[in-house]
Design a protein that fits this description.
This protein has 263 residues and is mainly alpha-helical. 58% of the residues lie in helices and 0% in strands. The protein is built from 11 helices and no strands. Helix 2 runs antiparallel to helix 3, helix 2 runs antiparallel to helix 7 and helix 10 packs antiparallel against helix 11. The longest helix has 25 residues. The protein is globular, with a radius of gyration of 19 Å.
């Protein structure tokens, strides 16, 4: 297994005196930043989209590292970010502080508790993300990004991990997303990312082929096989949700549902 040691150089590897440059490699790149100030709901929605996208990448990496040292930290972080994203997108921003506090208290080998402190504090006020806390919240996103980048490099360099290349790619993607998301809390840096919960057709994934090739199987068999593929890292959580929705539509027995399943 690989030990995800927390490198001491991380605390000084990024200068917090200047905005963090966005990295390449994250899918769903934002549109050009808009000049006008976003509304509170727009800011929370944008941050929720980015937390959601990052959490999926982290959970996908975690699914490839079952049994490896540090895997539980990835799962805990991914789930906490996912729950925080759901809270932001459903208007329950007060839940974010508690979610991230639980994550910070649960990790011990991959992240440090202080990595989450700025975001926890930013959501502990009577209003979400007061501007006085934007810098500290950005620091948190930079720290989490750096931790994910360090883990990605360590995993990729460890020949004992069979799925190291794919796991490393997922963590690099999450690293880039959180680094990019820090831009949301910079003056004039707002952008609205694409909704990661929406699956567009023809994304080049295997979900449609999976259903097309399994049309002779029962719905229960298809769901079981899809979840097994998720555990192996072959599907993302978003892909599994799409499969569930498609099967649900098909099970209604309507011509529309059957056609959707065959597409």
């Amino acid at each position: 297994g690989v030990a995800f040691l927390h490198p001491a150089w991380r605390s000084s590897s990024r200068s917090f005196a200047a905005p963090s440059p966005s990295k390449s490699g994250a899918s769903g790149s934002p549109a050009d930043a808009v000049a006008e100030e976003p509304s509170e709901s727009q800011l929370l929605q944008a941050l929720g989209f980015e937390f959601w996208a990052a959490s999926e990448a982290i959970l996908d990496a975690s699914a490839l590292l079952i049994g490896e040292s540090g895997q539980s930290d990835l799962g805990t972080c991914g789930l906490g970010l996912h729950n925080s994203a759901e809270a932001l997108l459903s208007g329950d921003w007060e839940e974010v502080c508690g979610e991230l506090e639980c994550v910070a208290a649960s990790i011990d080998t991959f992240f440090q508790e202080e990595d989450f402190a700025g975001l926890v504090d930013a959501f502990s006020y009577d209003e979400p993300l007061p501007k006085s806390q934007w810098f500290r919240a950005r620091e948190s996103m930079w720290s989490l990004s750096a931790a994910l980048g360090a883990a990605s490099r360590r995993i990729k360099a460890n020949p004992s991990i069979p799925e190291r290349e794919e796991a490393s790619k997922f963590l690099t993607k999450a690293d880039a997303i959180l680094d990019r998301a820090s831009q949301l809390l910079e003056p004039g840096g707002f952008y609205m990312p694409a909704d990661p919960r929406i699956i567009e057709p023809n994304l080049g994934n295997d979900y449609e082929d999976f259903l097309r090739n399994g049309l002779g199987n029962s719905e229960a068999d298809l769901r079981r096989e899809a979840r097994a593929a998720l555990e192996r890292g072959g599907f993302s959580l978003k892909g599994l949700e799409w499969i569930d929705q498609t099967l649900a539509a098909a099970s209604e027995g309507s011509e529309e549902g059957r056609e959707k399943r065959r597409r």
